[in-house]
Amino acid sequence: GQQLNQSPQSMFIQEGEDVSMNCTSSSIFNTWLWYKQDPGEGPVLLIALYKAGELTSNGRLTAQFGITRKDSFLNISASIPSDVGIYFCAGQTQGGSEKLVFGKGTKLTVNP
Amino acid sequence: ETGVTQTPRHLVMGMTNKKSLKCEQHLGHNAMYWYKQSAKKPLELMFVYNFKEQTENNSVPSRFSPECPNSSHLFLHLHTLQPEDSALYLCASSHEAGLINEQYFGPGTRLTVT
């Protein structure tokens, strides 16, 4: 079945540093989504990407839909302690099926 | 505060017990979903309901039985579970099933099967 390879699995950074994580797949996706999950909570949508090459920002977060439609990355600039959590990518295939394919997540730790 | 609530937040049950998880959404959505989140594994879609009708069963074992009495409520009935069923069970909703990319998640129920 379809799989998303998300990397890195975990990151330990200092406050103020920039962060980059990405998702790749052998399949083509029509939509890329990035979620953040805080401990004890459900995932919350951060950014949605709908077009190949699209670059979208949400505050300090920037995400891009890869031109091949098989990858996406998320950047966080000037990290702060509340950025701690698990970040997930998810892709939706062409045809708008009811399923999303999720990555395994990147666990981010920010040291003050 | 999220518009999707789940109860209980934590549940410990034995393999012979029967229990139910409840999800309620206050967003006026028509589609609801159950996901399973296990450690170091991607979120797994279990069931999809659209306008109270089940539209997706992702090869889920019959010891998990969903129920959707109306568009605002979703239940997951559990019986004779196995230890490997221990996980975080997440409920989500969206305006309709075709808009899965606009779904909102609840906080989840942490289930431990002993």
Keywords, please?
heterodimer; A: 112 residues; six-stranded mixed beta sheet; five-stranded antiparallel beta sheet; 0% helix; globular; B: 114 residues; mainly beta; four-stranded antiparallel beta sheet; 56% strand
Describe, in plain words, how this protein is organized in 3D.
- The complex is a heterodimer of chains A (112) and B (114).
- Chain A has 112 residues and is mainly β.
- Chain A has strands at 5-7, 10-14, 19-24, 31-37, 44-49, 55-58, 61-65, 71-76, 85-92, 101-102, 106-111.
- Chain A is built from no helices and eleven strands.
- In chain A, a hairpin with a 2-residue loop joins β6 (55-58) and β7.
- Chain A is globular.
- The N and C termini of chain A lie far apart (40 Å).
- By secondary structure, chain B is mainly β.
- The chains are: A mainly beta (112), B mainly beta (114).
State the largest interface: A-B, 24 and 26 residues
Please, what is the oligomeric state?
Answer: heterodimer
**Helix-strand string of chain B:** EEEEEEEEEEE
Helix content of chain A: under 10%
Overall shape of chain B: it is globular
Low-confidence regions of chain B: none
Q: Could you tell me the mean pLDDT of chain A?
A: 93
Principal-axis shape of chain A equals globular
The SSE order of chain A reads EEEEEEEEEEE
Report the major sheet of chain B: 7 strands, mixed
Strand content of chain A: over 45%
Count of DSSP-assigned helices of chain A: 0
Structural class of chain B: mainly beta
* Main sheet properties of chain A: 6 strands, mixed
Strand tally of chain A is 11
Number of helices of chain B: 0
Structural class of the helices, strands and pairings of chain A?
mainly beta
In angstroms, what is the radius of gyration of chain A? 13 Å
Mean pLDDT of chain B: 93
Write the layout of secondary structure elements.
The complex is a heterodimer of chains A (112) and B (114).
Chain A: E1 5-7, E2 10-14, E3 19-24, E4 31-37, E5 44-49, E6 55-58, E7 61-65, E8 71-76, E9 85-92, E10 101-102, E11 106-111
Parallel strand pairs in A: 2-11
Antiparallel strand pairs in A: 1-3, 3-8, 4-5, 4-9, 6-7, 7-8, 9-10, 9-11
Chain B: E1 4-7, E2 10-13, E3 18-25, E4 31-37, E5 44-50, E6 53-57, E7 64-70, E8 73-79, E9 87-94, E10 104-105, E11 109-113
Parallel strand pairs in B: 2-11
Antiparallel strand pairs in B: 1-3, 3-8, 4-5, 4-9, 5-6, 7-8, 9-10, 9-11
